[in-house]
Amino acid sequence: EVKLVESGGGLVQPGESLTLSCVASGFTFDDYALSWLRQRPGKGLEWVSAINWNGHSAYYAEFMEGRFTISRDNAKNTVNLRMPSLRPEDAGVYYCARWGDYRGYDYWGQGTQVTVSS
Prior knowledge:
The chain is an all-beta fold. 0% of the residues lie in helices and 52% in strands. Strands 2, 4, 5, 6, 9, 10 and 11 form a 7-stranded mixed beta sheet that branches. It is globular, with a radius of gyration of 13 Å.
């Protein structure tokens, strides 16, 4: 059974940092690209970042303005999203998703809540 389990969310103040983690199981991890997406309150789902199978290529949404960093550890079946300098507008539920090529995002985690508030 394919599983993606996110963790690392929480309540932080503006300017503080979080690192989200997604642990995968049930498939050959390094066969797949992975992404982080988010759903902010009252907004649609947004793609945030993606990383290819070996971690050598990473991609970011323009609104990230270079603040976040995605990484993966294929030995630990984990993909991370480091989020420094958080802003209130970064708040939302962050999801890890597997890119299944022509199938699109075929598996999702349950999401982890990020709240940025003073």
